[in-house]
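Hello everyone,

My group is preparing for a crystallization screen and wants a predicted model to guide construct design. The compound we'll soak is zinc ion. Before spending weeks at the bench, it would help to have a computed complex in hand. I've included the protein sequence and the ligand's SMILES below. Output in structure-token form would be ideal because that's what our pipeline reads.
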Amino acid sequence: MSRRHAGWTGRVVAKARVYWASRLYLAASTGTPLPCHRCGGAVLPTDDWDVDHIVGRAEGGRVLDRNNQWPSHSNCNRRDGQRKTTELRAKAKQRLWSW
Ligand SMILES: [Zn+2]
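Reply:
Good plan to model first. Here are the tokens for the complex, ready for your pipeline.
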């Protein structure tokens, strides 16, 4: 266990969520909700959302740095991870739901 791998886990995530929850509430209350890191749509405090990273851990991003954090919809975040298998299907679904 080296410090380099100090994790994005339990307590750390919980703290980040508290911080970003207050940012989301503030932004939504002023009528300019924060955009989702993945889809660019508004993230509302009542949505399902995750604390995402602008530069991912795999690319050497600093996961604990708030300047490298941004909220994403939970769906967008998960979908991005499975993009290879589900991208086309998700797009087809969106098209169906848009009308
Ligand atoms: Zn999104």
